[in-house]
Amino acid sequence: RRVHGAAEKFSQDQIKPIVREMDNKQTIYPSLLKQLFENGFMGVEIPTKYDGVGANFFSSLLVVEEIARVDPSVAILTDIQNTLINTILLRYGNEQQKSFWLPKLACDTVASFCLSESASGSDAFALKCHAKPQKDGTYLLNGTKLWISNSEQAGLFIVFANTDFSRGYKGITCFLIPRDSPGLSVGKKEDKLCIRASSTCPVHLENVQVSADQILGEVGQGYRYCIELLNEGRVGIGAQMIGLTRGVLDATIPYLKERKQFGQPIWEFQGIQHQVADAMTRLECAKLLTYNAARLRESGAPFVKESAMAKYYSSEVANHVAGKCIEWMGGVGITTDYIVEKFFRDAKIGSIYEGTSNIQLNTIAKYLNKW
Amino acid sequence: MAGSMKVLVGCKRVIDYAVKIRVRPDKMGVVTDGVKHSMNPFDEIAVEEAIRLREKKIAGELIAVSCGPKECGETLRTALAMGFDRGIHVEINDRQLYETLTPLHIAKIFAKLVEKEKPGLVILGKQAIDGDCNQTGQMLAGLLKWPQASFTSKLSIDGDWAHITREVDGGLENIKVALPAVVTADLRLNEPRYATLPNIMKAKKKPVDKVDPEQLGVDLSPRIHIIKVEDPPVREAGVKVDNVDELIDRLKNEAGVI
Lengths: 371, 258
What we know:
The complex is a heterodimer. By secondary structure, chain A is an alpha+beta fold.
């Protein structure tokens, strides 16, 4: 609860005033980034011996949720760092990699998860990035990753590349590549509809030389790590979408109680009340799906179906509720004077990244085959 | 060399400043159940000042004190998470009794704790945002026969003296008080830090001692009797007048104030 309180207070005090500016300028202020690190929000599950907070998965989710309640763009930065980056290192890093990178990830280094390419989004394992084994045991990486979040700020890139295309996806290997590696460059930021403050850029790898000790885990196991991590990441997105939904409602409900038409606050009209009650119920469902998936994960139980449901449903709810909020606000809902339109735009990403809604439905359906 | 002065700070659990206060249906108080509570903002400032004194190597052990029901433990954990060393929870679980506590009761409790802990400095918030009494610090100083400095907006310690700037009606007053003293914190004294997640986790392990007020020998029987609590009257619209004559006429004949 205290973790939640801290995240809430920080987000409301420090992030809220600059949300609109950061959206307009399409950037996350370095000073805010520094504060996120200082407050421990970037290393929630990293053990204290690596300078992290040493808290649990649920705590990460609470942090993401409270930040998303104010700014989903900042939330995705913390979500990726906590649920994808830190987790993959904790789980598959060797001691040397962990003691080198984890303290940095907890204290000052943002990292990016580089999987997607121009020809491989949902079909992630059709990636073409090549890690060619060299005679001296090193690898030469070539390829371009697309849609990489946090890439403008990242000091570390977790890159999935194939060491042996003849083995298909079983050649996919995970590499730890620092930003200053010769041949690695970050391309121009995408100009986006949503989560504009979050940098989304191509990452070019041109003859990047990588040594064997930069391999995370085992050669050819990258696809497996990916599946596992994105599964967890889904619960994180669930939390982000829940936060977004709560945030858009926070921004809307007070207005409904003030705005008068036909002699009364529009909140008094049964039609509005029914719609809000419906929105709140959907939000509650999304929360329960997400928290339940988290609970299963924490207890070591399988949670693939539940996390797919959580991500799918939470993003649908976020989209629906944000849209409704604009309608309830009327004309002012579409102006940039109010933050509601930003939540509406940001919600759209929920059904797209970290596994599109269609992919989530595929995953859920697979479980139904066992019926 | 670490500082050696022990500092005691009071942390009151109050309804969060952002919450819209509602009067209870029985008109005997305000709604507190299920309502968000936090540390009194002026107490947070007091906590922050004590931590800064330790960072300057003047203060040593920092002790947070809270009086009230079990939820006050949370308030103490916040102080611990900000950087305090231990907490003292004077537990008062009788809700009705708690509601009739006044600054004098609290000052007496603190006086007993001060006798026991022997701090070199006590910092309290200038007032609580629920009672707005602005009395506890002053009363405590009186009971202890210690110097006091209220409405402090600047504090520096120099050996056995504290140099204080106070915000008073006439402006700013600079005084010097001999330690040990009671200081009450005003808004502009500092800006409290955030309790970072790592510190929140560390705070879980810090000790909080529970104290029974009866053990302290303080009589908590009510000194006041709450008759009724109600909303202030709804503010009515003002009236514009055309000239001074009309103003005087209306003040005299309608409002009856001159």
